[in-house]
């Protein structure tokens, strides 16, 4: 049975409407690109044409794709003038698309350092290439503009250097899982590999000593994004430590696994000074699963103390106990940064 949709009656998505399109291709997930609705079907799918992405290397044939309903939204509004602040969640215009990040530095030269979680990279942007991050929820933007009209559909995304071209594979035609649109958008978010302008020093203000507790991340397939509890055994050369995991054992079960780890993959345990009585739908959390903490989004609130959590990296959903969740925080430049309260829906 086809999924029901009201989107084809939505004036925001009529043929000819300017929209932003979320990519579902690996390496581009979570980014939004400017385009136009070409055709609306009787299913929750639309044919769109991109403005800055092309099918050919010469950049003469704009790319057209069939995308799912949750992948399109009107052009996001932005303030005519805004003073961006430390720790604000923003969209940064990069490689012809908008990518979500967190402001980690406000520099005197008028530029802003933006941190991308997935790659642990930090890139500088000018104010004109930033906008406050907003969510398209139930037909309106959250948070709304304050005291100014949305520039939305009047917005012209400026061309950055050579237009270039980018080939993309066609999206799957399989029906999407019946999950809240906003959850699907969030869990799909990935940041692309980009040129590293400035490395993030994860131990900027922290020195680990023998016996200290820590959390260690992995780059192995199937474990990316997970943080495992460990203790520091000893330093090993420059910017490297020998750690002993608390939940992973050696293959011969002869004790807990020890491993040498670079400092960029080590952080202290997050502070537990925030007690949460109840988590809300769409709230970003860390979930304890298979001995590690994984970033996810609460997609459903079941009878307390149970929640359904959708994991960002895999898109998998699991039902977990309240005791297995904690508020998500990011370790940025030697400090713990919580998500912007302005985005709590």
UniProtKB/TrEMBL annotation:
Composition skew (Basic and acidic residues), residue ranges: 146-162
Family annotation (InterPro entries): Agenet-like_dom, Agenet_dom_plant
Region Disordered, annotated ranges: 1-20, 146-178
Polar residues: bias regions: 1-11
One Pfam entry name: Agenet
Record-linked SMART domains: Agenet (SM00743)
Name the UniProt record assigns to this protein: Agenet domain-containing protein
Taxonomic source organism: Salix suchowensis
